[in-house]
Amino acid sequence: MIFTDIGMDTASLAGPLEGKLDAVRRAGFSQVMISAGDVVGHSGGVAAGVRCVRDSGLTVTGVEALRDFEGCNGRLREYKVDVAKSMLEICGELGARLLVVEAATSVHVDAKPDAIIRDLRMLSVLAIPMGIRIAFKGVSRSRTVRNFVAASEFLYRADCPNLGLALDAFDVLAAHVPLDDLDAIDPQQVFLVQLSDYMWQEMLTPEEQAATASHFRVFPGEGAHSDGLAAFVSKLDSIGYRGNFSFDVYNDDFQQMPPDTVVQRARRAAEWLVETVLRRALPVPDMERLRRPAAT
Which terminal Cβ of the chain has fewer Cβ within 10 Å, N or C? Predict the structure, then answer.
């Protein structure tokens, strides 16, 4: 069976890019979020990494992630603009139409609204000729934009058609953001929803939250917050979100496991999401596609 609107991130898997993509495809996913480091770090160079993705037969959900971009000044800003241009080029080469931008956590950025809006608008304008959308994500430990409500306000003020939201369930759950806040969001403004869970009930310090986000996430249905995660997805469905979901699961343990083992966990999460939360019929199996080797 093929999951058409659910994918996963290559950063969740260990090993070379080819092995990651093969495992994702064999598990029945039709799309994949590409971590830029997997492409630029390919043993054969960037061109080989791009070719590997294009030959996989998988649709690229997007590329992630540009970090600590908005609010920079002086030479730091020049440097970050160069980084952004490079990531946009990677998007273009991959045929990706989405770049995820995470709200800045650096102490060296300017958190004033005008600086944030200035940079989001500039990035969006750079992306327009390439047909790339910018999905901006509020991060609960950010110094600039800590949740999707604040992010939505900045997007409104930036007023660019290719600038929208990325919603990360981890940050919503960790920060105890009320789900009713989603009622104020235009579902057409949401470009991507990232899903993950974690094992402990509470995170007592910002440091613990940052460590959990980077090292200890688990797949939906595996953690301590399945009810909250299900409520989050159901709320999105009720307000009319019909876009893509991506499993954004950073876990050090998964980096020590074979990709096929990890993607089977992702497959179970997708089945849980489709059957139990969204209550859809599972996709019809397409065994011919699963058997067909990737193009060479």
Answer: C
